[in-house]
Amino acid sequence: MKTTIRVLTAAAVAAVAFASVASAATLDDVKARGVLSCGVNTGLPGFSQANDQNQWVGLDVDMCRAVAAAVFGDASKVKYVPLTAKERFTALQSGEIDLLARNTTWTMTRDTQLGLNFAGVNYYDGQGFLVNKSLGVKSAMELNGASVCIQAGTTTELNLADYFRQHHMKYSPITFDTSDQTIAGFQSGRCDVLTSDRSQLYALRIKLADPSSAEVLPEVISKEPLGPVVRQGDDQWFNIAKWSLSAMINAEELGVTSANVDEMKSSTNPSVKRLLGVDGDFGKGMGIGNDWAYNIIKQVGNYSESFERNVGMSSPLKIERGLNALWNQGGILYAPPIR
Amino acid sequence: MTERDERRLASSKPAPWNDPKTRAVVFQALTVVVVGYVFYVIFQNTLYNMERRGISTGFGFLHNQAGFGVLMSLIPYNETDTYGRTFFVGLLNTLLVSGLGIVFATVVGFLVGVARLSSNWLIAKVAMVYIETLRNIPLLLQIFFWYYVVLQALPSARQSMSLGKSLFLNIRGLYLPAPVLNDGAGYIIFTAVVAVIAAVIIAIWANRHQEKTGNRIKVLWLNLSLVVVAPTLVYFIMGRPVSLDYPTLQGFNFQGGMRMIPELMALLWALSFYTAAFIAEIVRSGILAVGHGQTEAARSLGLRSGQTLRLIIIPQALRVIVPPLTSQYLNLAKNSSLATAIGYPDLVSVFMGTTLNQTGQAVEIVGMTMAVYLTISLSISGFMNWYNKRVALVER
C-alpha cells in the first residue's frame, strides 16, 4: 500500500513537472528569477572567457550583459552557463538557458528545425585554417592528406568536408569536444592543421606556447554569421534579444557611447532621442522599461566599444573591423532603425 | 481435528479485500497502470512541447547526407553517406574497442589475480601495487594519461620511430604493413578455415577417447602443425599470392599499410588496465574461495602446482568468478563511451555528438544510443549467464 501511494505521488509530481515545462513567457521567468541565464563558450579569448578576476568578458558576454541591462537595468544580473558546441542547443531548447550567446553560426537547419530563432548577427566570420609555420604550407590547397583538428558539433565539420571534397583532397578529421582540447591536439602535433572560424583561430593562436610559430592561411572557405539565439515561439523575448543587439549597433552609428550617453539625452537628434527613451514608448512594446537602450549603452557600451575592447585593436587579438564595420564605413553591419 | 473442522478451515477463504493474494495482484496491476500512464504522459508531453517549439521529430533524418568526415571506420564511409551510416560507423567502433578491451582485460586480470596470490613475495607485491593504484584512479584521468602524457610524447610523423622499413610509430599512430590479397589468396583462407575446423574435431575426439578409455592421446602438436603447415603449403603452391603494402611517408603522413590510431590505443589501454585491476581482485577472491583441502588433495594425487591450478582450482573458482566478472564486462562496454574525451570516434562521439548536433534530433538520437548500450549490456549479461550455468556446480 505504501509503495502504491509513493508511486501515485511520483506520478502526480511527474505529470505536473512535465506539464509546466510548456510555459512560454521567458521574460516573466527571467524577471521572477531575478537573473538572466546566458549560455556562453567555455573559454574563447575575445568572445567569452573568464578573466583573472574570475569575471566573464568578451563580445558574446557583452550580448548577455546587454540583454540583462535591457531587462533589469543592471548588466551584472547574468548567470553564465559555459557550454560546449555539442551542449548548446539542447541547453537552450530545454530551457536551461534563456539566451545563447556563443559564437553560433546562423544556418537554415538550426533556424528552421531546431526550434530556435537567431536574433541577428554580432560577428560576421568565415572559416579558415591554422598551420604550423614549420610545415611550409602557404595555401589551403596544399593540405591534401593532412590530419585536421576540429571541434565537434560545429558547422566547421561540414564546411571542411565540403571544401576537401570539392578540391579532390583527402584529410583525416580528429574531433575534440572543447576548443581547449582542440588546440592541445594541434600543439602536440597530433594534427597538421586546426580549422575553425577565423576569429577563433586568432583567439586560439594566442593560447599557444609560441603564437608566432603558427599562422592563419589566407583562404576563407565559408560564411559564418555568428549571433545570439533564443527559443522559438516567444516573440516578446525574441524582440528583446534582437533589439538589444540593434541598439548597440544603432548607438555606434549615432555616435552614442557609454561616455557621452548622459549628455546625449539632451541631444536634438530625434533618432538619438528615440534610442535613449526620451521620445516614444519603445520599451513598452517589449514589456520592459523605456530606458532599456540607455541602460545597455551606459553599462555595456555601443557595438564599437564592445568590439574594440574585446577583439579589436585594444585587445590581444587585434582583429580589424573588416566586414564588421558599419554599413556606411565599408562593412556590412546594418541595424534596422528605432522608430 | 475432525474432518468437518478441516473442511471448514479450507472453505473459510477470507473476503477478497482481505485476501493477501488478491490484494497483491490488484495493487501490482494498479502500479503497472500508473507507471504506464506516467510514461504515456511524459511521451505525449515531450511530443507536444517539441511540436509547439518547432523542433522537428521522427527518424527521417537518418536518410539525409551526413556531410562530415570520421577519423576511423570499419565499414567504408565518406562524407556523402547518410546519418544512418554514421550510426553504424560509431557502433562498430564502440564494439571494436569494447571487444578488444574485454579480451585484454580478462587476460591481464587473470594473470595479475593469480600473481597476487603467488608465493613469490616480489610478484605478489607488484601485483598488489598494480591493483591498488589502477583501481583507485578515475578512469577518465587514466585515459587522459595514456593519451596526453604517454602517446603525445611520441615523435612527429617525420621523425617517427621505426623497425626496419615496415613498422613505424609516431604521434599519428602505429603503422604496419597491410596484407594485400591477390588472385588465389582465397584458397589459403579456405585451407586455413578447414584446418582449424579439423583441429577442433580432432581435439573433441581426443577428449571423448580419454573419457571412454582413460588414455590420453597427445594431439596438440598434430593440431598446431595442421593449422600452420597446411595454409603455408597452399601459399607456396599458389605461387605466393599475398603481398604486403608498406606504409610510406608521403606529404604530411604515412600512406598505405595499416594504421592503429593513438586514440584507439589510449582508450584500449586505459579501459583494459583499469578493468583488469578489478578482474584481478575477482579472480583472487574466486581462488581463495576454493577450500585449501582441494589443493592438498590435488597435491597428494601427485599433480604439479600448475596442473593443480589449471585442473582443480580454476574450474571451481570460475563458479565464484563469473557472476562479478559479468559486471566488469558491462562496465567496460559502458565506459568505452568516455572515448569522446579524446576524440576516438565511438558511438557517443560520432552519433550522439556530431550527428546530434548537425540534426538537432536529440530525443531520437539519445533514445537510439541508449537502446544500443542496453542491447550490448543485455547481450553480454545473457552470454555470461549462459556460461555461468555451464560452469555452475551440477548437484547430482
Structure description:
The complex is a heterodimer of chains A (339) and B (396). Chain A has 339 residues and is of the alpha/beta class. Helix content of chain A is 38%, strand content 17%. Chain A has helices at 2-20, 26-33, 59-72, 88-93, 108-113, 155-166, 179-188, 198-205, 235-254, 261-264, 270-275, 292-299, 303-310, and strands at residues 36-41, 49-50, 56-57, 78-83, 99-100, 116-118, 123-125, 127-132, 146-151, 171-176, 193-197, 214-216, 224-226, 229-231. In chain A, the strands form five sheets. Chain A has a five-stranded mixed beta sheet with strand order 10-9-11-8-12, sandwiched between helices. The radius of gyration of chain A is 22 Å and the shape is globular. The model of chain A is unreliable at 11-23 (pLDDT under 50). Chain B has a domain at 42-158 and 262-395: MetI-like (MetI-like fold). Chain B has helices at 3-11, 20-52, 83-116, 121-135, 139-150, 185-213, 220-237, 262-289, 292-300, 305-335, 347-359, 362-391; strands at residues 161-163, 167-170, 173-176, 178-181, 242-245, 248-250, 253-255, 258-260. In chain B, β1 (161-163) and β2 form a beta hairpin. Chain B starts with a helix and ends in a 5-residue tail after the last helix. Chains A and B meet through α1, α4, α5, α6 and β10 of A and α2 and α11 of B. Chain A: Residues 1-24 form the signal peptide. Chain A: Residues 35-264 form the Solute-binding protein family 3/N-terminal domain. Chain A: Belongs to the bacterial solute-binding protein 3 family.
Element-by-element helix/strand order of chain A:
HHEEEHEHEHEEEEHEHEHEEEHHHHH
> Which structural class matches the secondary elements of chain A?
alpha/beta
Q: From the coordinates shown, what is the CATH architecture of the domain at 126-224 in chain A?
A: 3-Layer(aba) Sandwich
Q: Identify the CATH homologous superfamily of the domain at 42-158 and 262-395 in chain B.
A: MetI-like
Average pLDDT score of chain B = 87
* Overall radius of gyration of chain B: 29 Å
What's the CATH topology label of the domain at 126-224 in chain A?
A: D-Maltodextrin-Binding Protein, domain 2
Give the overall shape of chain B, derived from the CA principal axes: globular
What coarse outline of chain A follows from CA principal-axis ratios?
A: globular
Task: Give a short account of the largest sheet of chain A.
Answer: 5 strands, mixed
CA-CA gap between termini of chain A = 65 Å
What's the helical proportion of residues of chain A?
A: 25-40%
Strand order, main sheet of chain B: write it out. 1-2-3-8
What is the H level of CATH, i.e. the homologous superfamily of the domain at 126-224 in chain A?
Periplasmic binding protein-like II
Q: What are the low-pLDDT stretches of chain A, counting only 5+ consecutive residues below 50?
A: 11-23
Total number of beta strands of chain B: 8
Which structural class matches the secondary elements of chain B? alpha+beta
**Helical residues, percent of chain B:** 55-70%
Count of alpha and pi helical runs of chain A: 13
